[in-house]
Amino acid sequence: MKSGQIFWGTFFIAIGALVFLVRYDVINISWSFAWELWPFIFIFWGIIVIAKNSKAKPFISALFGLFLAVLMFGVFYNFSSGDIYFSENDNYDVKHYSFNYDDSVKFANLEVNGGVGAFIIKRTSNNLIDSKAKGPISDYIFDTRFNDSTAWIDCYLEDTKVDLFFTKIKNTVELKLNENPIWDLEFNIGAAKSVLDLSNFKVANLSLNSGASSTKIKLGDKHSYTNVDADLGAASLELSLPKSSGCKITGDMVLVIKDLEGFEKTESGYYITGNFDEAENKIAIDVNSGVSSFTVIRY
Fold first, then answer.
1. pTM, whole model, 2 decimals?
2. Where in the chain are the domains?
């Protein structure tokens, strides 16, 4: 049997086995280590070149196929999973930012511009905003300004030279927001994982622009009408929407793998819930995407 056949056979068997074992919780581990395995690709290539005419080449090809399957599965799992992994033992900088809340603030706009890492919103705050940035490139700048009853908050990463080959990208930004204002939220993120629990906030507009990312968003029914605009690259998006809200989904989703719980497709091509017209609170979602997956969960 040729070495190429052994490589591909081992690779596909390993991929299938990993999917099966992880899906049924036979294997339940953090796959964050996969990011750190990429240098072994060159090691295996070198060994294969050296052992080109040796009897050990089929064994090395099988081992390389197994390794590549683990690496690719781990990387894909890290992007597609909403689980955020961060070791407390990592010796990274931690930076905090807070801004006091004033009762005169009725509307708030938050714009987040970030590259790689993880973005988390899970809790409320008595301040207008609290943040904690942790990681090797945690130099996030917060710019806050006011005009009458409206606050603007810009969050962006300071220009930093990052060695993508030798830096472990485990940046995490945790945000806590005040639940009193009506929020407009904009997230412009690259290769990131995000868990945004917005169920306790009055969200009027949510804009998500992402590249190769994995995002989980939970919306509530605190505001009468919420607009969601998602522009995705090779990304996965999971939306959790309250059953009490009427929801509508439009957009260009030709190459999107869709799992839209509780929605029906209309003759016009968009998706809608049965209670959209009579629901007190409504959520309108527009998704424009490349190759990605889009899942809706009704709770």
1. 0.69
2. 3-80, 93-298
